[in-house]
Design a protein that fits this description.
It is found in: Chromosome, Centromere; Nucleus. Belongs to the CENP-K/MCM22 family. It comes from Paramuricea clavata. This is Centromere K. The structure is a single chain. The strands form two sheets. This protein has a three-stranded antiparallel sheet. A two-stranded antiparallel ribbon has the order 1-2. It has six helices and five strands; from the N terminus they run ααααββαβαββ. α1 packs across α4 (95-196) and α2 (12-49) packs antiparallel against α3 (61-85). Among the domains are: 94-165; 217-273, no CATH class. It is rod-shaped. The chain is mainly alpha-helical and 278 residues long. It starts with a helix and ends in a 5-residue tail after the last strand.
C-alpha cells in the first residue's frame, strides 16, 4: 500500500494539483494583504480625523502621526516581503498523499521511540548493576563495622581486666610494702622502748607493821602504746582505754606531757591515743 501511495505522489496529476494549490494559497495571502492594507488606510484616515487628541509636549502633532504611520508601513512592508520570499509549503489535499506522509512520519517517530526505549533499557540495566554493586559494598561496610565494634568491645574488656589486674597487683604490692614497713617500725619502736623504757617493778609495804613484802608487776610502755593503738584502729568511735593499776603513773604522765595521749573530758580515768593520722 505504501508503494502505491508513493507512485501516486510522483504522477503528473498530483504535481499539477500541488502547483494549483500553491497558486490558490498565494492568491489567498495576497487577498489578506490587500485587506490588511485597506485596514491600514482606514486607520490612517481615522487617526488623521481625530483632532482632539494631542501629542506629547514638545512634539509636533502632524510630524508625530506621520512618523507613527511610516513606522507601521515599514513593518507591514517587511512582513509582506517576507511572505513573498518564503516558499510556501502547502499540504496536498490528496488523501493518499496525506496518508503516505502521515505513515512516514509515524514510522520515523516509532523508530525514534524504539531507539529511545533501547537507550532507556540499557541505562536501566546499568543503574540496576550500580544499585547491586552499591548494596554489596554497603553490606561489606556493615560487616566491617560490626567486626570493628566487636574488636573495640573486646579491647575495652581486655583493657578493663588488665587495668583491674594492674590496680589489684599495685594495691597488693603496696600492702606488702606497708606490712613490711609496719613490722620494721614496730620492731624498732619495741626495741627502743624496751631499751630506754623498761617495765618498772614496785616494791612497797602492804601495811605499816612488819609483814612480808610483795612485788607489783607494771606493764611496759610498749604494751601501753600498743593497747592504745589497737583500740584506736579497732574502734575509732570509742577509742578510750581505762587506766589500769598496772599502768605506771610516771609513764602516763610522760605520755600526757608529750601530747601522745589525752584524757577523757568527763572521766580522768580514761585515756586515748592522739589520732596523728587525721
Amino acid at each position: 500500500m505504501a508503494s502505491t501511495h508513493v507512485q501516486s505522489f510522483q504522477s503528473p496529476t498530483s504535481s499539477a494539483g500541488i502547483r494549483d494549490s500553491r497558486q490558490e494559497t498565494r492568491r489567498e495571502i495576497m487577498d489578506e494583504c490587500e485587506v490588511t492594507w485597506e485596514n491600514i488606510q482606514k486607520t490612517h484616515h481615522r487617526l488623521a480625523s481625530r483632532k482632539k487628541e494631542r501629542p506629547p509636549v514638545g512634539t509636533d502633532e502632524s510630524n508625530a502621526t506621520l512618523k507613527i504611520l511610516q513606522h507601521k508601513e515599514k513593518r507591514l512592508q517587511a512582513q509582506l516581503d517576507l511572505r513573498k520570499n518564503q516558499d510556501i509549503e502547502v499540504v496536498s489535499k490528496d488523501p493518499q498523499f496525506v496518508e503516505t506522509l502521515l505513515w512516514n512520519d509515524m514510522k520515523k517517530n516509532i523508530s525514534h521511540l524504539q531507539q529511545a526505549l533501547g537507550i532507556v533499557k540499557e541505562q536501566r540495566v546499568e543503574v540496576a548493576g550500580d544499585i547491586a554493586t552499591a548494596r554489596k559494598y554497603l553490606e561489606e561496610q556493615k560487616a566491617i563495622q560490626r567486626s570493628l565494634e566487636e574488636k573495640i568491645q573486646a579491647f575495652q574488656l581486655e583493657d578493663d581486666e588488665q587495668q583491674h589486674t594492674s590496680v589489684l597487683a599495685e594495691l597488693q604490692s603496696k600492702k606488702k610494702e606497708a606490712s613490711k614497713y609496719h613490722l620494721t617500725v614496730m620492731n624498732q619502736l619495741g626495741k627502743f622502748l624496751s631499751d630506754h623504757f623498761p617495765a618498772p617493778n614496785d616494791d612497797s609495804d602492804d601495811s605499816e607493821d612488819n609483814r612480808p613484802r610483795r612485788q607489783r608487776q607494771y606493764c611496759s610502755l610498749q604494751h601501753i602504746i600498743e593497747t592504745l593503738m589497737n583500740r584506736l584502729f579497732e574502734s575509732p568511735h570509742d577509742c578510750y582505754v581505762k587506766i589500769l593499776p598496772t599502768y605506771w603513773q610516771p609513764y602516763i604522765q610522760l605520755l600526757l606531757r608529750s601530747n601522745i595521749i589525752q584524757r577523757h573530758p568527763d572521766n580522768c580515768d580514761l585515756i586515748r591515743l592522739v589520732a596523728f593520722h587525721t
